[in-house]
Amino acid sequence: MSSDTLNLTLRVWRQAGPDKPGGFCDYQLDGVSTHMSFLEMLDVLNEKLIAAGDEPVAFDHDCREGICGMCSLMINGQAHGPDRGTTTCQLHMRRFASGETITIEPWRATPFPVVRDLVVNRSAFDRIIQSGGFVSVNTGNAPDGNSVPVPGNRQEVAMDAAACIGCGACVAACKNASAMLFVSAKVSQLSILPQGQPERSARVLGMVAQMDKEGFGSCTNTSECEAACPAEVSVSHIARLNREYMKALVFADR
Amino acid sequence: MNALLRILGLPACFLAMIPGMAPVVRALSSSVGQKLLMAASGLSLVGFLVVHLAGNLQLYAGEDVFNAYAAKLHSLGPILGIAEVGLFGMFALHIGLAVSTAAMNRTARGSAYAMKQTKQGLFVLPAGGASNWMMVTGILIFIFLVSHILDMKLKKGFGVDYSAALDASGEATNSFQAVKAVLQHPAHSVLYIVCIIALGIHLSHGIRSALQTFGLHHRNWNFIFRWSGFLLAWAIAGGFISVVVWAMAAKNS
Ligand code: HEM
Ligand code: SF4
Ligand code: FES
């Protein structure tokens, strides 16, 4: 067994505000427990910085259990760090070796401007969802659970797409900063389910238009998004988005 | 970047002025629309390459057969002209969209990462799979294209001696001899082989990518999609390279 603590050099991106210049700062952090999560390690760093009277490193987080999609760090050039199917908050420090230098950067994409240090503004995703990533239902009593039948295999595919937590790692990892995996996950999920049918063609056209308007790149089918996605959303959903888009262009009534 | 995008968008603007075309242009101007056009133009060019290779392989049947084929092609007259305009259009569309989407992608990233690594395992080339080399290989194909038209169509290949291909009136009309003259020129054989390898790399991602862009993705069929694209790419490249090697060997024997 290797020892239970690590001595690390952290190269952290520091940026005082959206329009301020940014740069890397090096911090030495000794005695990091291998049982910590990556975010707990940053908490320890921040406690040290605060104790020394320095400004703590700003980073996004909320649930710390891989479901909210808030944590968003480029760790040694990999979105959410080296593991597949894992968010930054689920990443353990035992994945690193003592003496290592860890480079930590924010997501880099023009539609995701840096708010401060490692925090980026992902409102662009919210606006894409607002442009079609929903179903319209009447309020009132919840409908009976089995009144709208959905075959099991469709449920499975829709659920695989619905696993997207909106973290933005796909954009961060893509060499084109394309949001196709995120957009396709929602388009796919709702195009498969009966509840999504009324808005089906308007949804795909609206969401693609908003995605372009936000300034995301175009997809070159490199599949880096799929490899980086903590929810393991597959590029098969991008193919479905392309099919939905073609169908909407040619067959939609309006 | 914006100025570049505006210039590249000019043909689309003119097209949109034709009555009835505006909605089509608008629909295909989105990022997904542009990729659909790239895939369509790319696959059309692949279709052309297959036909072109079939023609070229007739070199192996000897001088008479090949020249008869070339004569027949030229006897098509205006039809050949129309086909050439169409081909030129496909190249222009494909290259224009390649540059426009690449500019879009660069703007979308903004500032570069200090460190960037991939999580994908299977990599054919250093620093990423063939998909990371589309622009580089595309530019090599373009350089090849310019040289190829000068060499074979205009018979003005740089440093090539066309004397074996001349007819009584002093024009280089013997296609078989002209091809040999070009391919036996050392600088040309190197350029051709390098650029055709680039073509093989380009298509080994391009064909599969185009299928995915057209929505063809199914776990039962992905194996076929992936490998048929790869095999077709290298069959085309291998076929063309074999012609270059054949001409070089003919020179030395
Ligand atoms: C014989 C010539 C060529 C053929 C047969 C060809 C074929 C293809 C195909 C089938 C695709 C995939 C379409 C897609 O899904 O996007 C593609 C993509 C692409 N091509 Fe070409 N191409 C040719 C020449 C060129 C040239 C001259 C350039 C650039 C100057 C170029 C640049 C690109 C780029 C940047 C992409 C997009 C990359 C991607 O989707 O990953 N190509 N090409
Ligand atoms: S598709 Fe995956 S990587 Fe992209 S936002 Fe959703 S969970 Fe994150
Ligand atoms: S903090 Fe919620 S997913 Fe990481």
Keywords:
heterodimer, A: 254 residues, alpha+beta, Ubiquitin-like (UB roll), Fumarate Reductase Iron-sulfur Protein, Chain B, domain 2, two-stranded antiparallel ribbon, 8 helices, 34% helix, 15% strand, B: 253 residues, mainly alpha, 0% strand, binds protoporphyrin IX containing FE, binds iron/sulfur cluster, binds FE2/S2 (inorganic) cluster
CATH topology of the largest domain in chain A: Fumarate Reductase Iron-sulfur Protein, Chain B, domain 2
Number of DSSP strand runs of chain B? 0
Helix-strand makeup class of chain A: alpha+beta
Q: Classify the oligomer.
A: heterodimer
- Which ligands does the model contain, each kind named once? protoporphyrin IX containing FE, iron/sulfur cluster, FE2/S2 (inorganic) cluster
Q: Output mean pLDDT of chain B.
A: 91
Radius of gyration of chain A, in angstroms, nearest whole number: 20 Å
- Percent helix of chain A, as a range, is 25-40%
Q: How would you sum up the major sheet of chain A?
A: 5 strands, mixed
What does this structure look like?
The complex is a heterodimer of chains A (254) and B (253). With 254 residues, chain A is α+β, with helices and mostly antiparallel strands. Chain A folds into two domains: 2-115, Roll (Ubiquitin-like (UB roll)), CATH 3.10.20; 122-250, Alpha-helical ferredoxin (Fumarate Reductase Iron-sulfur Protein, Chain B, domain 2), CATH 1.10.1060. In chain A, 34% of the residues lie in helices and 15% in strands. Chain A contains eight helices and seven strands. Chain A has helices at 38-51, 123-130, 152-162, 169-173, 180-192, 200-214, 224-228, 236-251; strands at 5-15, 22-33, 74-75, 78-79, 101-105, 114-116, 119-120. In chain A, helix 3 runs antiparallel to helix 5 (180-192). The longest helix of chain A is centred in the C-terminal third of the chain and has 16 residues, at 236-251. Chain A is elongated, with a radius of gyration of 20 Å. Chain A starts with a strand and ends with a helix. By secondary structure, chain B is an all-alpha fold. Chain B has two domains: 1-48 and 85-129, no CATH class; 131-253, no CATH class. In chain B, 72% of the residues lie in helices and 0% in strands. Chain B is built from nine helices and no strands. Chain B has helices at 2-17, 22-28, 31-56, 63-75, 78-109, 134-153, 175-183, 186-213, 222-252. In chain B, helix 1 packs antiparallel against helix 2, helix 1 packs across helix 5 and helix 8 (186-213) runs antiparallel to helix 9 (222-252). Chain B is globular and about 60 Å long. The termini of chain B are far apart. The chains are: A alpha+beta (254), B mainly alpha (253). The structure holds protoporphyrin IX containing FE, iron/sulfur cluster and FE2/S2 (inorganic) cluster.
